[in-house]
Amino acid sequence: MIQKGDITRQLILEHATALASQVGLEGLSFGRLAEDLDLSKSGLFAHFKSLQGLQMKVLEHAAERFTETVIRPALKAPRGEPRLRAIFDRWRRWPKESRMAGGCFFVAAATELDDRPGPARDLLVSQQKDWLETLAGVVRSAIAEGHFHRRVDPEQFVYELYGLMLAYHYSVRLLNDPKADRRAETAFESLMQRAKA
User: Fold this and answer.
1) With contact defined as beta carbons under 8 Å apart, do 135 and 141 qualify?
2) For the residues of 133-179, what is the DSSP string, one character each?
3) pLDDT at 5 over 70
4) pLDDT for the residue numbered 6
5) Sign of CA dihedral 58, 164, 194, 85
6) pLDDT digit string (tens) for 16-50?
7) H or E segment at 17?
8) Which of 2-11, 28-37, 139-148 has the lowest average pLDDT?
9) Cβ neighbours of residue 55 closer than 8 Å, sequence gap 6 or more
10) CA dihedral 190, 191, 193, 197 (to 10 degrees)
């Protein structure tokens, strides 16, 4: 049976993650969350023990949402090229499907934490390395399935794909480029064609 405290904690994390996508992890405060959610500061503190504890849980929650929205559904596609295409498609839709006003939570967090040593940065780095390794594994499966030629360097492919997605994010969010989707698709197809056997 789900406890009331678990539901409250989930609601807090949903709101805090959406808020952090706009104001950053450093912009989170128990006072703001208490006001937004009509909860007491002491009640919020009881859930997370510290602001750093809240930030860490928000990072974990965002990663869980990304896994549920992008990774798990994409991994249901057949191995190799179809799976990679599913990842690209779902990853591109992630900022909208996450329903976070600030767009991609992880781009915002990376910009905020890139030069701030500490547990939150360490966790974000670990999460991103795990994601890069997941992508590299999918590229390796495309090589094993014969979809990509054996000379493909999975890490280089992932580096270029990641760069493509960052360019896409900035084109959509910052530049409001109406051609961003088409440009991302063109860049992805170019990357795929170079890798094909």
Assistant:
1) no
2) HHHHHHHHHHHHTTSB-TT--HHHHHHHHHHHHHHHHHHHHTS--TT
3) no
4) 65
5) positive
6) 999 999 999 999 999 999 999 998 888 888 889 89
7) helix 4-23
8) 2-11
9) 20, 25, 28, 120
10) 170
Give the Cα separation of 74 and 47 in Å (integer): 33
Backbone angles phi, psi at 118, to 5 degrees: 150, 180
Residue 9 corresponds to which tokens in the numbers above? Answer: 């904690």
Q: How far apart are CA 80 and CA 98, in angstroms?
A: 26
Which residues, in sequence order, are CB contacts of 110 under 8 Å at separation 6+? 124, 128
Per-residue tokens: 79: 């191995």
Q: For the chain, give the number of residues.
A: 197
Q: Helix (H, G, I), strand (E, B), or coil: what is residue 196?
A: strand
Measure the CA–CA gap between 93 and 108, rounded to whole angstroms: 16
In 3D, which of 104, 124, 88, 87 has the Cα closest to residue 174? 104
CATH code for 55-195?
A: 1.10.357.10
- Single-letter code of the amino acid located at 122: D
